[in-house]
Amino acid sequence: MTELKLMALDAEDLAVIAAHLQDAVLRIEDMAYLKGERRFAIVLNRFDWTHAAKDNKRGNRFVRRRAGVRIEQVRTAKVQGLDLSQKDRVLSLLTLTFDEGTAPQGAITLTFAGGGAVRLEVECIEAAVTDLGAAWRTPRKPEHAGE
Length: 147
Description:
This protein is mainly beta.
């Protein structure tokens, strides 16, 4: 299996990363805003949608992969609907979106199932996702209402 390594420098690139991270799971303690470095970092377990589309046609199981995400040029980070003291709480990432401000500035929002969100005010879009090598089979494919 090919490891994922993507970089985003505009909203279109960020949408590609968002598609790959849809339904990723993580614990609250796996997110960090590194104010001094102006970076937001996450380690998560992403569902491999590319593998699901290709290999599962042959009856293979689905796959999750450990991945690292970094978002650079972060000016501020705000949390809504999440209790950061619940470090072991598992979150399911629904999507990442970009709301443009005065170009190239804007806000990247990570939206989680259950209503929680993290909003990152950024100087510009500079984000990356990299698989960290670990992958394992999972019996279930994430499902969404209306599918």
